Amino acid sequence: MRALAVTIATVGGLGHAPWAPGTWASLAAVPLVPALGWLHARSLVAHAAIVIAVIAVAVWAAGRAEAYFAEHDAGCVVVDEVSGMLVGSLFVPATWLAALLLFVLFRLFDIWKPYPANVIDRGWSGGVGVVGDDLVAGLYAGLAARAVLELM
């Protein structure tokens, strides 16, 4: 189970990229945004269920990986970025423009860590602590992307 958890936590090894592994993982999630947007147009419940399932698996894998690497939010654990991007996908339409805008905004919010992401990042341990701040970043990025798209 440890190998499975580490594989999921590193998104199939993408977390071992020599530079910017979180950015690469976020970029890997970009094609999922239009696909989930297509599903959203047909069933919000199905879209939300997939996002919740991914978050649950991410929390489990990140928690196991944290114990394995003996480090809180190790740089190679990037499943949290994928989870955050999928949270953001709940707010944007099924277009590549929306997906790319979400990607840029998500990376900004993920690095900035506005409240309460900063509190979760510093104060919570385990899988929830690893993934939680990215869920907040995804929420903020999704709402911001939606607002920008509405203004266009």
Descriptors for this entry?
152 residues, mainly alpha, 8 helices, globular
Describe the structure.
With 152 residues, the protein is an all-alpha fold. The chain has one domain. Helix content is 76%, strand content 0%. It is built from 8 helices and no strands. Helix 3 runs parallel beside helix 5, helix 5 crosses helix 6 and helix 7 runs antiparallel to helix 8. The radius of gyration is 14 Å and the shape is globular. It starts with a helix and ends with a helix.
Secondary-structure element order, N to C: HHHHHHHH
Distance between the termini: 47 Å
Integer tally of domains: 1
- Number of DSSP helices? 8
Shape: globular
Strand count: 0
Strand fraction = under 5%
Q: Mean of the pLDDT scores?
A: 96
Task: State the assembly state of the protein chains.
Answer: single chain
User: Radius of gyration from the CA trace?
Assistant: 14 Å
Helix content: over 70%
Contiguous low-pLDDT stretches (5 residues minimum) are: none
Secondary-structure map:
Blueprint: H1 2-9, H2 21-29, H3 32-42, H4 44-69, H5 79-89, H6 96-112, H7 117-123, H8 126-151
Helix pairs in contact: 1-4, 2-5, 3-4, 3-5, 4-5, 4-8, 5-6, 5-8, 6-8, 7-8
Would you kindly provide a brief summary of this structure?
The protein is mostly helical. It has helices at 2-9, 21-29, 32-42, 44-69, 79-89, 96-112, 117-123, 126-151.
